[in-house]
Write a structure and sequence with these properties.
- This protein is an alpha/beta fold.
- It has a single domain, classed as 3-Layer(aba) Sandwich (Rossmann fold), CATH 3.40.50.
- The protein contains six helices and eleven strands.
- The strands form three sheets. Strands 5-4-3-6-7-11-10 form a seven-stranded mixed sheet. It has a two-stranded antiparallel sheet with strand order 1-2.
- β6, α5 and β7 form a beta-alpha-beta unit.
């Protein structure tokens, strides 16, 4: 697999992977709107997600939602399971999520690095919706390994991600946010090394050289 070399060019300035990661952390921690694509894309996601949840979740499941944002997607997950524990960096987004009033969702503040402090539960399914592209450097592989510790054997990791056909691409998406789009081989390979097997991918949309899909992985 081929990895985008450092340094990354952002607004004509070179930044390291660590600096890009710090930029992203600040961006998402202060975010009050998670949408960075056009409206029709998100309508496709919200149209497909309930069907995906009905297919893969049961009413007895305990689920983790990493990067839950304003709870827009979390509410669909919660409708198909017993309990959701949902995390996000942004206080503003968590306030929006709590105002939805979905009773079986426990919203908490935290990021990927803090999730291992909550290993009191092995989850039946973990949702990571559009979070992996915010991770730079080798933190992706570490995040995959960390998440594997939170999923029960035979449980699910369900993601929504954009990947490239060949090489990784690092791209300045909007002011303060730099995305790392991994090749399909890099993305699937990193999660496979962490102990997940790809069960299914479901195409959502394409953006030039990027393909966006739901991915359903099962913990070995």
């Amino acid at each position: 697999m081929q990895i985008q070399p450092s340094p990354i060019r952002v607004a004509n300035q070179a930044v390291s992977a660590a600096q890009a990661a710090a930029m992203n952390h600040r961006y998402w921690a202060s975010c009050n709107d998670t949408h960075v694509a056009a409206g029709p894309y998100y309508r496709r996601v919200t149209g497909m997600l309930p069907v995906l949840c009905e297919r893969y979740l049961t009413p007895q499941d305990t689920v983790l939602d990493v990067g839950c944002g304003n709870g827009e997607y979390t509410q669909y997950i919660a409708a198909c399971c017993d309990e959701v524990r949902a995390f996000d960096l942004s206080p503003a987004l968590l306030d929006q999520a709590r105002r939805r009033g979905t009773p079986n969702i426990d919203y908490r503040s935290g990021d990927l690095a803090s999730l291992l402090d909550h290993r009191d539960t092995l989850f039946d399914a973990v949702f990571v919706m559009g979070v992996f592209v915010t991770i730079h450097g080798d933190r992706f592989e570490q995040a995959a390994a960390d998440l594997a510790q939170l999923v029960r054997p035979g449980g699910l990791l369900i993601t929504r991600d954009s990947v490239t056909a060949e090489e990784d691409i690092v791209r300045h998406v909007t002011d303060g946010y730099v995305a790392h789009y991994r090749s399909a081989d890099h993305f699937i390979g990193g999660l496979s090394e962490a102990g997940f097997t790809l069960e299914r991918s479901i195409f959502i949309d394409a953006f030039g050289d990027l393909t966006n899909s739901f991915y359903v992985f099962r913990k070995n």
